[in-house]
Design a protein that fits this description.
Length: 283
């Protein structure tokens, strides 16, 4: 790996440490990377750090997006307003939007720009214990050896001590019912102390509607915690895609039209197409 790339990673790491509050907390939040290694990187002692370690750190810090200019699309602006409202006023919101409409990128950028924001990318295999372990790591804690009760107490006491914390649960539709029920307990413990955002595609709304229709345990309480409504993001517009193209070096009308026509309003596809066009022009 080139020194230029390593410097990029070091800069991203510096921002990450600042957000987490210390190198120890950053080390706990990063998998397989100790606080001592982070110290070596920040001090410029790179000789003994393997390329594999650099790549792992780059992936976890999402450094690849630093080569991509993020545009303030309509959904980007709306999401940041929702995040700020939830964080400042300890609100719970359920937000749905199409895949590729910019939810995850916006959440990561908001987390990078603000303190006390903890983002989880949910998985269907999580149980309550795994959910809490991931949340504690994101908070810069080491949950090794803790019981479920210990972890819950640590999460609640830590969040209650922080100024306006926010938990963003991305791809929340993947959560099992067991963890979904646990969300109620978490909310009850943190009401008026912590904002919580559940974010997913419209499958989350369908999942909750089905739970309500079947009168499944906990779903009435869950829906009540959302304020009995889902916030719907608009599909990505052609105007947003055009702005993304221009910001990332695609300025010719035919090229922009090609991106718009082939993207299907999915910003992930826009990104891939922009990279492909730029690579072709560079040859």
């Amino acid at each position: 790996m080139e020194n230029r790339e390593k410097q990029q990673i070091k800069e991203a790491l510096g921002r990450f440490i600042e957000v987490k509050g210390s190198q120890n907390k950053a080390g706990n939040a990063l998998k397989g990377i100790s606080a001592a290694t982070l110290s070596q990187i920040m001090n410029g002692n790179w000789e003994l750090i393997s390329d594999e370690m650099w790549r792992s750190l780059s992936a976890q810090l999402n450094v690849k997006n630093k080569n991509w200019n993020i545009v303030e699309t309509t959904n980007y602006k709306d999401l940041r307003a929702f995040f700020a409202d939830a964080q400042d006023n300890s609100l719970v919101m359920a937000i749905t939007g199409d895949a590729g409409c910019g939810k995850t990128v916006t959440a990561r950028q908001y987390q990078e720009d603000n303190s006390n924001v903890f983002m989880l990318c949910c998985n269907e295999f999580w149980n309550r214990k795994l959910f809490m372990q991931e949340l504690l790591r994101e908070m810069g804690k080491n949950p090794a050896g803790d019981t479920v009760g210990d972890m819950m107490a640590d999460i609640v006491s830590t969040l209650k001590r922080l100024d306006c914390p926010l938990i963003i649960m991305d791809e929340a539709d993947k959560l099992s019912d067991q963890v979904f029920y646990f969300f109620i307990t978490l909310y009850n413990q943190l009401e008026d102390h912590c904002g919580i955002i559940l974010m997913a595609t419209d499958y989350l709304e369908k999942k909750v509607a089905k739970g309500l229709r079947l009168n499944k345990k906990g779903y009435k309480e869950i829906f009540s915690r959302f304020g009995r409504r889902f916030i719907h993001l608009d599909p990505t517009s052609d105007e947003d895609i055009i702005e993304v193209c221009i910001a990332n070096g695609i300025t010719e009308k035919d090229d922009i039209k090609e991106v718009v026509d082939e993207s299907d309003a999915d910003l992930r596809r826009v990104r891939r197409k922009v990279f492909a066009i730029n690579a072709k022009k560079a040859r």
